[in-house]
């Protein structure tokens, strides 16, 4: 990024490891993929990942005054340009799925239906940003998000944002921005790839003129993490807990989990609590230790398998099936609520209702513990920092303890 687009602080670096092995890139038109994510595609491929490209339209309506035969010829040209651009990026063997949908009339629902089988086993998808000021880009971004499996991380790239919006436009999700730097070899390869799209960059009235093209030759590509819009579905957790050992996050054995429990228990301001609640109790690894600090502890879980696992782990603690923000998960009159690794899975409305329920359930002077992994699960609508901010900014809660490390974020708050 250059000039007014420079950010302070800059977008965080993109860790290719987050993308996983199979990455499906979606383009509304031939050239979108190279403009917005050519370097990223190349990097995933060079790291041993599997890249696939889906091109929704052939871009035949780039010049609206063309007649039918001329549009057909332009579509054929743009298909060849895509092949040449991929070769220039070192991606000749990448599978390309050309859907042939109508250019400048892309329908999000129709595209989503076509994308579902192509995204089914993807670890990540990369598509045009739905906020980009082009209706086909909007449709492509919405379709990819709708068709995505819950286990895949979503990423979107802007195209016309750079030319048609201002850097401080409130619609731009800078808080979700990640930067992928291109070394000189990758930058040169991207320039060669873009030069292959002569139908768009050449002629007396190019679709992508030099001043717009300059935004894609900065040596940095920007993508936005695009989380799911709804809460993580219960079926996802049922599947995880149905695994061989019934402990999908190795809560009983992993150093991360054991260390987090130790930090959490050490952060409790009081030696003993009268009545505590632990929603989303998982396998009960924390429940066992928390029960030793409470006269009464109510535990609950979202998944029947998790409830069964906790019941088998601890004696003397009632464990029920309940989902946040139900009062059964957070009963009235508690003086401690421990909510770990669950709030970031809730959509905005459910999180807001859960925060309200915490304020109602926890007695004034009582404590609330929230702890979450900082890696942002694919199924989660937001990351740990954004999740914790919802409570930290709420005047009903007073922060007492803050713990931040490279793995997890933990806060203890007191009900005001």
Automatic annotation (TrEMBL):
GO molecular function (one): methyltransferase activity
One biological process term in Gene Ontology: methylation
Pfam family, one: NodS
UniProt entry keywords in alphabetical sequence: Methyltransferase, Transferase
Source superkingdom: Bacteria
Protein name (database record): Bifunctional PIG-L family deacetylase/class I SAM-dependent methyltransferase
Organism: Pseudonocardia abyssalis
